[in-house]
Amino acid sequence: MFTSSEVGVRSLLHLPQALQNAATEKDLLRRYEPGEVIVGPGKWSDDIRYLVSGKASIVLCDDHEERVPVDTLGPGDIFGEVSFFTGSPWPSDSFLVADGPCQVLEIVREDFERILRSEPDVTVPLVRSLARRIIRLNRTLFQIKLKKRSLQSLISREDHVFPDYHMGKHVRQRVAQRMDELAKSDDPVLIVGESGVGKEGVAHSVFRAGRHCQEVFLALDLLSTGSDTSDDGEQENLPAAEQELTDRQLRLLFGWEEPARDGGTKETPGYFDLAEDGTLLVRRVDRLTRLSQLKLLEAVVTASFRRVGGVRQKKARVRLMATTRLNPEEVPPERHPLIQALKDSAISIPPLRSRRREIPGLIKHYLDKHGNELRRDVEKLPKDTLRVLLNYQWPGNDLELSNTLKRAVLVSQDGVIKPEDVYFDLKRVEGKGKFNLLKFKPLKQAFLSPLYPAVFQSAAVPFFLILIAFLFFGPTDPMKNTAALIAWAVGWPTMIIASFVFARFWCSVCPIGVIGNLAKRVVALELPFPAFLKNHSDFLIAGAVLAIIWFETATGIRDSPINLGFLLLAMLVSAVIVSMVYERQSWCMYLCGLGGMVGVLAKTSILELRADRNVCISHCNTNECYLGKEGDDGCPFGHAGPRLHSNRLCKLCGQCLKACPHDAISLSLRLPGREIWEERRPKPGTAFLVIGMIGGLLSEMMSRTRSYELIKDFLPFPEIVSFSLVFAGVLIAVNLLHLPAVALSRRTCKE
C-alpha cells in the first residue's frame, strides 16, 4: 500500500474539488493491489470508502467460510453508505476486495457528512451512484426470480419429484370436479387418503391447473424430516417432549433467528417463506403438534409469520396443500385444529381395494410404463396371474401395485408374468428358527471375495479333464482304473451325502457347468430357453436321471471305464452347446440329470441361502441380485431375491450376495428337511422326479436279486430288453402306489 504522495495527484483531477482537497490535505488516498482486502476483519471503521480508480468486489462468507461475490464497485462508487445512512453496522462476515489495482479515498464519517452538506458537486454524483445500484439490485432480484422459476419448473415435474400416479376412471369421476373447483381458488387444500393412493399426485395436478403454476411448489415431508408425533394423544402427558417437538417443527416451517458474530441477527429461512407466492405441500400434516398446526393456520390466513427467536412479523403469501391419512370427520378438533379447519376444502381418495374395477386398467398402465423404462416387453399376463392381482387386498394401494408390477417385469421371462413372479408384502417373519452364518465376518468376507467359488472351480476343472483322460486311456479293468474308482467309490456317494449338508454347492464347482459357462465367453447367443421346456423341466430332468440310472445298469457302465468316459464327455458337450445358445446356466437349471437329482436332495439340507423378503420389498426396486451389476453377474439360475424359495433353485454361488446393495441375503442353518414340510407349491413334475428316482434305484436294486434272474429267464429277450421292461414296470408300479397316497393325503389334510 502506498500514500498519495507516492502516486501523484493526476488521478484526482476528475474528482469534485472537496474530495481533491480532502485527499491532498489529509493524505486520504490509498492504493491496493489485486486480491488485497480493502475492508474486512481487522480493518473495520466508520470511514467511507470512495473508489477513485479500478474495480473492487463486495464479498460475503457463507457458513463454510467460503467467499461469495455479491456486488462489484467501479470508479465513483462508495462503500459504507449503508452504515452512514441507516446507522446499522455492515455485516462482519463481509469483505471489500480489490479486483485490480485500486485507488481509494478513506474519508472519516464526520468529514464526509460535512462535505455532503456543503458540496452539491459531491452529493449529486452520490445520489446517482445510489440510484444505479438500486436499479442493479432490482434487476438482480428479477433475475433471481426468473432463475427460481426455471429451477422450480425443472424440479417440480411430476415424473421427477412425485411417485407415478395414474388416476383411474372411477377416481377421476369422483374428484375431477372438486379438483377443478379448488384449482381455480387460492384456498388451502386438504387431501385425504391411505398411503399409496396418490395424494401427492393429486396435489400436483391441482397446482398445475391453478394460477400459481408458474411459482414455486415446495414439499415438506414430516416423515423424512423426523418431525413425528403420536396420533393417540400420549404427548399431552409429556409437555416437555411436545414442546421440543413443536420447536423443531416451527423451525422447519418458519425458520429461526439467532445472534450473529457482528452483533446483528442471522436469519435462517423455513419452508413457509421459501414457498412465498407459491404453494407449500405438507405431507402427513397430522404429524404436526397442535400448536404447530395453529401457527401454520394463522400464517396462511394472515399471510404473515414470525421466525423462531424473532420479534418481527414477516409477510409471505403461501397457498397451503396438506395430506393426511386421517378422516377429518373423526379427528378431535382440539388435537388437529388445522385438519378441522380445512375439512370443507378436502378431497378424499378411496383405497384401491374399494375400486377393484380399476385394477386391470392400472395394471396395463404400469406394465406399459415399467416395460418402457426397463426395456422389457411384457406381451402376456395370464389369467391366473391377473386373478392373483385382483384377489390381493393392496394395503399399499396404487403405489404398492406399481412397485409390485415393476419387480414382476424385472424378474419375468419370455414376456410372461407368472404368479410366482408377483411378490406381495406379506410381513412374514424372516429367519425364525434359523441362524445366519454370515454374522461371522470371515465367512461373509469369503463369500464376498472374487475368489469364491473360482478357487474351487479352478481345482475341479483340471481334475475332471485328467479323470476323463484316465477313463479313456487307463486300464480297462474298473478295479484297476483310478478314475473309475474315484468316480464310483468316492465321487458318487460324496455328491449325494454332501447334498444333505452343503445343499446344491456341488453345482457351483461342477466342472461340466463351469466349462459350459466358460464357453459363453467364446459364443453367447443368450437366447431365452424355450418356455414349454422350462415349464416342464422337472420331467426333462426326471428323464435324464432315469436315463442315467438305466444306462448304468443296462450297459454295465460300472464295469466299463470307457463307457463312463463317453457318458461324461456327452454331458460336457451338451452343456457347452446349451450354454452357448441359451441364457444364464440353462443346462444346469433345466436339463442336467445330476444337477436335478442334487437339487431335490438339497431340499433336505441344513443350509440355505435366502433373501429377506421384507427388505427386498421395502427397499429394492432394481433387483440387482437378479440382473447383476457392474463387476458382478446376477443369479445364474434367475431365482435370486424374494423369488428364491427352494434350495433346488440355488447353488450357493454367492452372486446374489455380492450384487445385493441392501445386505438382505443370509446364509442360514435350519432344521433338516424343513423345506419339505413347508412346501406350499407342489408340482407334478417334481413329484414325478422324486418317484422316478425311487423307482429307478429300486429297479437297480432288483436287478441284483434272485427274482430278477427268474424274470430274465422267463422273458425270451436279450438282457438289455429284459431289464428295460423290468425298469419300466417298476416305475409304473411306484407311480400307481403314489395315487392312493395322494388320495389319503387329500382326505386327511384337505390338500
Percentage of residues in DSSP E strands = 5-15%
* Tally of alpha and pi helices: 32
Largest sheet data: 5 strands, parallel
What is the topology, as strand order, of the major beta sheet? 10-13-16-9-17
Overall body shape: elongated
Overall pLDDT metric = 80
Distance between the termini: 98 Å
Low-confidence stretches: 1-8, 153-164, 228-238
What structural class do the secondary elements suggest? alpha+beta
User: Would you report the number of β strands?
Assistant: 22
**What is the helical fraction, as a range of percent?**
40-55%
Radius of gyration: 40 Å
Describe this structure in words.
The protein is an alpha+beta fold and 751 residues long. Helix content is 50%, strand content 12%. The strands form seven sheets. It has a five-stranded parallel beta sheet with strand order 10-13-16-9-17. It has a four-stranded antiparallel beta sheet with strand order 1-8-3-6. Strands 2-7-4-5 form a four-stranded antiparallel beta sheet, with no helix packed on it. Helix 7 packs across helix 8, helix 17 (454-473) packs across helix 23 (561-581) and helix 18 (482-502) runs parallel beside helix 25 (593-602). The radius of gyration is 40 Å and the shape is elongated. Mean pLDDT is 80; it is low at 1-8, 153-164 and 228-238.
